[in-house]
Amino acid sequence: MSATGKVRLDMKPIRRLLKEKGLAVTGDVQRFHTNNVNRRIGKYMPHLTGTLETKSKHIKSATEIEVMGPYARYQSFGRAAADAGNQQRLEVHQNL
Q: By C-alpha distance, which of 76, 80, 81 is closest to 92?
């Protein structure tokens, strides 16, 4: 025995559903995750003076944490990346 029929699904667009639940790129969930990472990466940073963890680190956007310091890039990626990038900052990007 088999059954056949039609099903009509009436729902909101996916982007709207994600936004309503806080799951958009700049939504509440992403901001919570960025703040959580910002709080936890301190223990992996050098603590000679503590400036990288406190004064030189800030949340740039809902998905980026920026660490300003002359050795931040080297500390995270090593000598080759620091020489190639020749930048004085490190940007940590994460998305859900």
A: 76
Q: List C-alpha distances in Å: 31 to 17, 28, 86.
A: 17, 5, 29
Q: For the chain, percent helix, then strand, then coil, each to nearest 5?
A: 40, 15, 45
Nearest to 89 by CA among 67, 60, 57, 74: 67
Q: pLDDT tens digits, residue range 73-89?
A: 666 666 555 555 555 55
Task: Work out the number of other CB atoms within 10 angstroms of the CB of residue 59.
Answer: 15
Give the pTM.
Answer: 0.59
Tens of pLDDT along 11-66?
Answer: 999 999 998 998 888 888 888 988 898 888 877 777 767 777 777 787 888 888 88
